[in-house]
Amino acid sequence: MDLVIDDLYVQYGSSVMAVQGASLNVRDGELVALIGQNGAGKSTLMKAVMGWVGPHSGSVMIDGAAVNDRKFSHLKRGVSFVPEDRGIFSSLTVGENLRLGGVTRRDKKALDADIERELERFPVLRKYWGRGASLLSGGEQQQLAIARAMMLNPRLLLLDEPTLGLAPIIVDLIFDVIEQLRAEGVTILLVEQNAVRSIEVADRTYVLQAPGRVIGSGTAAELSASPAVVEYLGFE
Ligand code: ATP
């Protein structure tokens, strides 16, 4: 799945222009990271890809179709989003949360197989299947959020800060899962604060600086050759 963001401007209210002229693309099968400090505009860019905030100008296209077009359906196109707050229903069990991820699907047999696939990937979810989701740790909730997003068998997966506030061992697990999903052919846009790990794991990385401007992009080697990027990220 191809995502193309071209010269995007996004405004909140009448004053805050949170993204100013961002251009980036994610090609089919790629894992692309988007990094930058707090307030750089990363989450806003994700919301623009989901069509939750409209472009003031510029465009967001998925496989050649504009996401803010009324007829565009993220569900039908196979675009799944794991938001920063994870969006878990805390009054439901782990199993109910997972099933809810596939509630729009008609092929219930295939859905069961996909649930099984995610329980293999995240054994802790099998262990806590009947437990209230509010009782899960942050790391377990993040695993549930990713597993739930996978219930739609997405072709494009958007992950907003999936390792934020998690213990190092869980951060390792989440990065392993991200690599695994890419190997399975899922196209991924990953927003992260963990710049070093993201650059390492991604095919390409975009560096965003407030107010939502791309100041560099490329592979690890390409980024480290850019004085502006090195200065912004504070790398040695
Ligand atoms: P963080 O890592 O803190 O989430 P970010 O890079 O994701 O940061 P955004 O959340 O996209 O950045 O915010 C970009 C800018 O837009 C910031 O100046 C922020 O204060 C502003 N902003 C974000 N959401 C809103 C909103 N709903 N209304 C007004 N301003 C907003």
UniProtKB/TrEMBL annotation:
<dbReference type="InterPro" id="IPR003439">
    <property type="entry name" value="ABC_transporter-like_ATP-bd"/>
</dbReference>
<feature type="domain" description="ABC transporter">
    <location>
        <begin position="3"/>
        <end position="236"/>
    </location>
</feature>
<protein>
    <submittedName>
        <fullName>ABC transporter ATP-binding protein</fullName>
    </submittedName>
</protein>
<dbReference type="GO" id="GO:0016887">
    <property type="term" value="F:ATP hydrolysis activity"/>
</dbReference>
<dbReference type="InterPro" id="IPR052156">
    <property type="entry name" value="BCAA_Transport_ATP-bd_LivF"/>
</dbReference>
<keyword id="KW-0029">Amino-acid transport</keyword>
<keyword id="KW-0067">ATP-binding</keyword>
<dbReference type="Pfam" id="PF00005">
    <property type="entry name" value="ABC_tran"/>
</dbReference>
<comment type="similarity">
    <text>Belongs to the ABC transporter superfamily.</text>
</comment>
<keyword id="KW-0547">Nucleotide-binding</keyword>
<dbReference type="InterPro" id="IPR003593">
    <property type="entry name" value="AAA+_ATPase"/>
</dbReference>
<dbReference type="GO" id="GO:0015658">
    <property type="term" value="F:branched-chain amino acid transmembrane transporter activity"/>
</dbReference>
<keyword id="KW-0813">Transport</keyword>
<dbReference type="GO" id="GO:0005524">
    <property type="term" value="F:ATP binding"/>
</dbReference>
<dbReference type="GO" id="GO:0015807">
    <property type="term" value="P:L-amino acid transport"/>
</dbReference>
<dbReference type="InterPro" id="IPR027417">
    <property type="entry name" value="P-loop_NTPase"/>
</dbReference>
